[in-house]
Design goal:
With 131 residues, this protein is mainly alpha-helical. The chain has 5 helices and no strands. Helix 2 packs across helix 4 (84-108), helix 3 crosses helix 4 (84-108) and helix 4 (84-108) crosses helix 5. The longest helix is centred in the N-terminal third of the chain and has 28 residues, at 5-32.
Length: 131
């Protein structure tokens, strides 16, 4: 796929929002379990996202994208700190989200080369429907 600057901005906004959503739910889970920090097990990682994370990690062995995502994934301000394990997994989670959204584009249009605004919006709508 070919992407431009506006696509990169959309992509980062998507990943930032989804990571923030996961961390917000994780924070509520940690508080409900009377923990003082967010543990990896608190993140609501679905089976589908887990598969995408593993696929990203296998792919990333060759290209080293996780190092880039490590610097790019913001840590939203939350009431509870994150465990070291949670912080260490955030780039891989972002990578799994990235791979999942790329696959979504191929489902929307298998021939897509440069996603237009409406393809981005459709991909995001699909993600909003997922549990």
């Amino acid at each position: 796929m070919e992407i431009d600057k506006s696509d990169i901005k959309r992509y980062y906004n998507f990943v930032d929002q989804k990571v923030a959503d996961l961390l917000l739910i994780a924070q509520h889970t940690a508080k409900a379990n009377k923990r003082v920090r967010v543990e990896l097990r608190d993140l609501p990682i679905t089976e589908g996202l887990q598969v995408s994370i593993h696929a990203f990690e296998a792919l990333d062995l060759d290209i080293g994208l996780e190092r880039i995502l490590d610097r790019a994934v913001p840590e939203p301000m939350m009431d509870l700190p994150y465990s070291e394990e949670t912080e260490a997994r955030l780039p891989a989670i972002a990578g799994g989200l990235s791979l999942a959204v790329a696959r979504t584009f191929k489902i929307i249009d298998p021939q897509i080369k440069h996603p237009a605004t409406e393809e981005w919006e459709r991909a995001f709508q699909i993600f909003d429907l997922l549990p």
